[in-house]
Amino acid sequence: MIHDLRGPQGRPQRAAFIVAGLLAALGGLALWQGFALPDKGGYAGMGSGGLPKFVGAGLLALAAGHVWTGLRAQGPLPPRIQPAPVLWIVAGLLAQLLLLKPLGFTIASGLLFALTAAGLGRSLRITLPVGLALAFAIYAVFDQLLQLHLPAGWIETLVFGG
């Protein structure tokens, strides 16, 4: 019995090959940088280039898997990309990037949570207070328990002092 290696329309799926190419490029870059770092042995014989080499090899393995999947391509075609959810998530990332220093960790990360959840179809009325509460709890754990100081804004200063 001959197994068909083509997609539902009788051709390989291009998206899998595009992702495979990107993964292979990132994997090659990680390997190149891993081999470029001086290897001094470090703890247990593992030097500073060990992790980039490991990550690069993993990315190349994922790229090979995507090529295989693209050739096999069984099942339905992937859904069309919807720009609105992507824009919500990008807006959340930009909000955190721009607001982290001036407004602090709680507000910036709460907005990131809320806008990302909105991109996934959740209501901002629910996710904004939940995101702010979670971000504040995370700030409290890092600042008070672990003594690792995240950027503080007016909320953190009001509760924990300057």
Short précis:
The protein is an all-alpha fold. The protein is built from six helices and no strands.
Describe the structure using short key phrases.
162 residues, 6 helices, single chain, disordered N terminus, mainly alpha
Cα gyration radius (Å): 22 Å
Number of domains: 2
Unreliable stretches covering 5 or more consecutive residues: 1-8
Question: Strand-and-helix sequence, N→C?
Answer: HHHHHH
**Number of continuous helical runs:** 6
Strand proportion, as a percent range, falls in under 5%
| Average predicted local confidence, pLDDT | 86
Distance between the termini: 73 Å
**Relative helix content:** 55-70%
- Please summarize the sheet with the most strands: none
Walk me through what this model shows.
By secondary structure, this protein is an all-alpha fold. The protein has two domains: 14-72; 83-160, no CATH class. Helices cover 69% and strands 0% of the residues. It has six helices and no strands. It has helices at 14-36, 50-72, 83-103, 105-119, 124-145, 154-160. Helix 3 (83-103) runs antiparallel to helix 4. It is flat. Mean pLDDT is 86; it is low at 1-8.
What topology emerges from the helices and strands here?
Blueprint: H1 14-36, H2 50-72, H3 83-103, H4 105-119, H5 124-145, H6 154-160
